[in-house]
């Protein structure tokens, strides 16, 4: 037992204790045998844990130290102390607890998923807002809130491997979490940290980000299911929906089974599914995703949309752009088509390759479903794609594979297996994570034994001719892209050039380097590079001006590139419109600095394949996006229709000008367009239904205002730094040329605020959207936190000076009677779902004596703050003796009313419980209870003496 007979049960979260020769505040800890402590005037990083059952520590109740009557300061010092005390709060007793810790300022609309989550138990939510709206912030905000309320202890994120590092950075930099990165390369190091061999990484880590394809592997799967975290976030959740056919060998099916088993085994687990494309056009797959939220959503012939509504939020940009009157500056996308014509020699190569493909693909009755013939079919399409992509891709797939054709075993299996194996390599399947950017040579290899010697000679000749066409002189596509890139750069854009294959990306990147010379930085990112190296290249390139990035689709999904790039060039037409949207969504998203982003589609006007794909798929997708305001995924069966499009080019020999007309006469194409239009109409209706318009802006505004009241808003940060700088010979002044930007110089505090990468004076903003090039200072920024703790530490120090003294007095015309401003810190234990958590807040209240008793100025929440902001000294100034007299007068008044704080505590307790009921809509007794600690801590007392002489 602890020394002196104090049981640990006496020290609830929020209690003050004395141990190790200093005062501490008790904070919550899941182990009942550990007393977790935070210094009274410090942060959580300075805290410690005491294992009390050893009985070696003296732990006893403590009281908050009274102000030193010999240290008397001024009104600015008290105001700075008030602001500092609010800005250091991390467990703030605010409606949104998470805002005390995060370093990002969510837009008002991003609180809607959080409100929905707080009204679900367990939380099972599908966040399906449009691309670029900020779903990562919405999901992470929910995670941070549930952690800070003590409703979850451990959080995990499952996502595609290439997004793991991005998630880790977002959680660490913006949400004060330190996630473990769970991947094959990190697993051994993580396991060495475990205290015992029977504990897994998933059961030990408080926060982790893992590759879902690593976790779904048989070795990790069972351990993960056994030790899954309390809250699981699944990003790009559409790749986890059950695919048609339920082939257990497919990665997507395995991902689905992992999540299905998790949801079934742990019915109380919280689950957030995050995707911009929940409905791929396959109703069965969509219902399987909903079944992870609740099995009832998958069962039955009809979906109960009314019951589903609390579990889905799905909004377009226009739904949130002006939400709550807070403008969110999404960029405007400006799509543009750019054409080129093949030079004669390249056109002859294309025609010869096209003729070769037509000759080698048999179209006789029944033969197209022969396995060997299907291999030839895919080989022809692969060859055609590479020739159209670049001479480098054509040479890569032709020359190397032509030499190895005899090595292939030609072991073709059944036609369906051939299609399943080849289709992902040759086409652009949108439901597969990552995909491949390798040149599709497997089809040519497998077709090897069936090629005649004459055909192999022709393949080698094609490779030779392709090699000779490299360079802008003979490659009109490359020449056009070089010119367009140069034009974009000259207009201040920073473009990304997306290519389908690795050889093409390298070819284009090297050509751009040669063409642009030393005028700008050009980097190439492909799937050959590990995820971490890709990010390093992108971040390093972002420091150069001007800059161009050439990339394959390894960067087209999920990666945020809007900080460094603002234009997209589609060097290769994707054969799936979803991929087009994914590429453009990397720069066309919230946080983009430019008001307009450009998207260029490059195609050959004398190229039948490009024209077919463009007319049948891409233009149709763009028309729907323009009309609806959001992209609608290409419907199920698009792969088969795509094959129809290509086969029309390959196998038919219509008269010139009849090619595209024949495409639209094809029944499968017209059916696809009809189904697509129906899907767009359904999408419009669904998004209106699940836009959560039932959550009113005023409802969110009320809780945001209440949170700002506790934690401080951007204006609080600005006032604090201005007052602080002035006291140390520095300043915070408006920038002479950049509206909304301030130049901050901390004066004598430069050394104390010396942070890595920071030099003073520095240009700062208090709204991230005002000027993205200036340093954003939110309440959780290390500079603000360091400065606030410096003020609080000096105020509480026994040998501190008068700059931030806790006592003061002045004459003022702001009051007509003697008035005291009390700077109070309230501490609470929150009881919720059998959990306890610590919360605190700092308030200023105004009081005066009337008829021998203390009376608090109304309204309690604003009267004191108003005086702090408006009261200024009036002449004649008080002498030192007068200040001591009036301070002592008000201290005696407080001492005479021993329980003067009762109405204040009752007021705050009632306000907090009402706010909780509003948020969670819980009406049952005992669901949430606030236990205040009394008396509140008196941080400071400042007396306002009326200038008119009325001291009553």
Structure overview:
The chain is of the alpha/beta class and 952 residues long. Among the domains are: 3-61; 85-90 and 803-946, no CATH class; 106-314, Tandem AAA-ATPase domain (Rossmann fold, 3-Layer(aba) Sandwich); 346-464, no CATH class. It is 41% helix and 17% strand. It has 32 helices and 29 strands. Strands 6, 24, 25, 26, 27, 28 and 29 form a 7-stranded mixed sheet that branches. A 7-stranded parallel sheet has the order 9-10-8-11-12-7-13, sandwiched between helices. A 6-stranded parallel sheet has the order 14-19-18-15-17-16, with helices on both faces. A hairpin with an 8-residue loop joins strand 3 (34-39) and strand 4 (48-51). The two termini are 53 Å apart. 46% of the residues are buried. Mean pLDDT is 83; it is low at 1-5, 405-412 and 922-926.
Q: Report mean pLDDT, rounded to a whole number.
A: 83
Q: What is the 3D form?
A: elongated
Structural class category: alpha/beta
> What characterizes the major β-sheet?
7 strands, mixed
Helix content: 40-55%
List low-confidence stretches: 1-5, 405-412, 922-926
């Amino acid at each position: 037992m602890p020394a002196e007979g104090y049981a640990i049960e006496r020290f609830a979260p929020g209690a003050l204790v004395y141990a190790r020769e200093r005062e501490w505040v008790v904070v919550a800890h899941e182990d009942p045998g550990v007393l977790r402590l935070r210094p009274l005037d410090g942060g959580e990083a300075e805290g410690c844990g005491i294992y009390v059952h050893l009985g070696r520590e003296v732990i006893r109740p403590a009281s908050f130290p009274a102000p030193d009557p010999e240290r008397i300061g001024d009104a600015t010092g008290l105001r700075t102390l008030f602001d500092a005390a609010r800005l250091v709060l991390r467990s703030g007793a605010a409606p949104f607890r998470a805002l005390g810790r995060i370093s990002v300022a969510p837009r008002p609309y991003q609180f809607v998923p959080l409100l929905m989550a707080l009204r679900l138990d367990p939380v099972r939510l599908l966040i399906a807002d449009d691309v670029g709206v900020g779903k990562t912030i919405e999901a992470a905000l929910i995670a941070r809130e549930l952690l800070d309320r003590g409703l979850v202890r451990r959080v995990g994120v499952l996502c595609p491997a290439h997004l793991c590092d991005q998630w880790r950075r977002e959680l660490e930099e913006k949400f004060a979490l330190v996630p473990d990165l769970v991947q094959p390369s990190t697993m051994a190091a993580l396991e060495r940290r475990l205290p015992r061999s029977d504990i897994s990484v998933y059961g030990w880590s408080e926060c982790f980000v893992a590759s879902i394809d690593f976790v779904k592997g048989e070795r990790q799967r069972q351990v993960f299911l056994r030790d899954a975290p309390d809250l699981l976030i699944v990003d790009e959740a559409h790749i986890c929906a059950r695919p048609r056919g339920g082939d257990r060998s497919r990665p997507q099916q395995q991902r689905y089974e992992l999540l299905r088993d998790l949801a079934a085994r742990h019915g109380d687990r919280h689950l957030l599914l995050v995707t911009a494309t929940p409905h791929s056009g396959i109703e069965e797959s969509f219902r399987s995703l909903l079944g992870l939220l609740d099995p009832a959503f998958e069962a039955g012939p009809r979906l109960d949309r009314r019951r589903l509504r609390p579990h889905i939020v799905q909004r377009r940009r226009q739904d949130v752009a002006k939400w709550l009157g807070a403008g969110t500056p999404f960029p405007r996308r400006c799509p543009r088509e750019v054409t080129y014509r093949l030079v004669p020699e390249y056109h002859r190569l294309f025609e010869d390759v096209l003729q070769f493909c037509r000759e080698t693909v048999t179209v006789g009755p029944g033969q197209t479903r022969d396995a060997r013939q299907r291999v030839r079919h895919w080989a022809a399409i692969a060859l055609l794609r590479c020739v159209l992509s670049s001479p480098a891709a054509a040479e890569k797939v032709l020359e190397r594979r032509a030499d190895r054709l005899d090595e292939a075993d030609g072991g073709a299996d059944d036609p369906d297996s051939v299609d399943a194996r080849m289709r992902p390599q040759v086409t652009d399947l949108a439901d597969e994570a990552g995909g491949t950017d390798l040149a599709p040579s497997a089809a040519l290899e497998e077709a090897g034994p069936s090629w005649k010697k004459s055909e192999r000679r022709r393949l080698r000749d094609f490779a030779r001719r392709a090699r000779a066409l490299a360079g802008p002189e003979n490659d009109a596509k490359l020449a056009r892209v070089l010119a367009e890139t140069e034009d974009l750069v000259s207009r201040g854009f920073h473009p990304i050039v997306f290519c389908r294959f690795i050889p093409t990306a390298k070819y284009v990147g090297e050509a751009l380097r040669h063409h642009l010379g030393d005028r700008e930085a050009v980097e190439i990112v492909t799937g050959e590079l590990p995820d971490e190296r890709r990010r390093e290249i992108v971040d390093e390139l972002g420091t150069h001006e001007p800059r161009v990035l050439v990339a394959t689709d390894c960067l087209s999904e999920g990666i945020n590139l809007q900080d460094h790039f603002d234009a997209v060039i589609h060097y290769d037409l994707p054969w799936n419109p979803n991929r087009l949207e994914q590429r453009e969504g990397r720069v066309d998203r919230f946080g983009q600095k430019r008001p307009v982003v450009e998207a260029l589609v490059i195609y050959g006007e004398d190229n039948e394949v490009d024209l077919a794909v463009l007319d049948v798929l891409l233009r149709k997708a763009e028309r729907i996006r323009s009309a609806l305001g959001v992209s609608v995924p290409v419907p199920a069966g698009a792969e088969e229709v795509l094959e129809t499009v290509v086969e029309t080019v390959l196998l038919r020999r219509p008269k010139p000008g009849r090619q595209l007309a024949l495409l639209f006469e094809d029944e499968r194409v017209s059916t696809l367009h009809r189904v697509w239009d129906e899907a767009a109409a359904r999408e419009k209706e669904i998004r209106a239904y699940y836009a959560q318009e039932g959550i009113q802006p005023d409802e969110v505004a009320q809780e945001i205002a209440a949170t700002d009241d506790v934690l401080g808003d951007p204006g609080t940060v600005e006032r604090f730094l201005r007052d602080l700088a002035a006291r140390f010979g520095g300043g915070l002044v408006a920038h002479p040329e950049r509206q909304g930007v301030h130049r901050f110089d901390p004066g004598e505090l430069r050394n104390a605020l010396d942070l890595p990468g920071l030099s003073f004076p520095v240009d700062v903003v208090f709204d991230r959207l005002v000027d993205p090039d200036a340093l954003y200072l939110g309440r959780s920024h290390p500079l603000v936190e360091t400065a606030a703790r410096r003020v609080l530490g000096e105020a509480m120090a026994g040998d501190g000076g008068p700059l931030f003294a806790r006592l003061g007095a002045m004459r003022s015309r702001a009051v007509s009677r003697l008035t005291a401003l009390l700077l109070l810190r309230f501490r609470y234990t929150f009881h919720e779902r059998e959990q306890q958590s610590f919360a605190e807040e700092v308030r200023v209240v105004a009081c005066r004596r009337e008829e021998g008793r203390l009376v608090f100025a109304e309204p309690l929440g604003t009267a004191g703050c108003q005086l702090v902001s408006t009261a200024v000294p009036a002449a004649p100034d008080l002498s030192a003796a007068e200040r001591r007299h009036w301070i002592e007068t008000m201290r005696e008044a407080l001492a005479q009313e021993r329980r003067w704080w009762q109405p204040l505590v009752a007021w705050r307790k009632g306000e907090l419980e009402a706010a909780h009921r509003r948020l969670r809509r819980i009406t049952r007794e005992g669901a949430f209870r606030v236990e205040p600690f009394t008396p509140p801590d008196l941080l400071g007392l400042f007396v306002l003496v009326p200038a008119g002489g009325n001291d009553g």
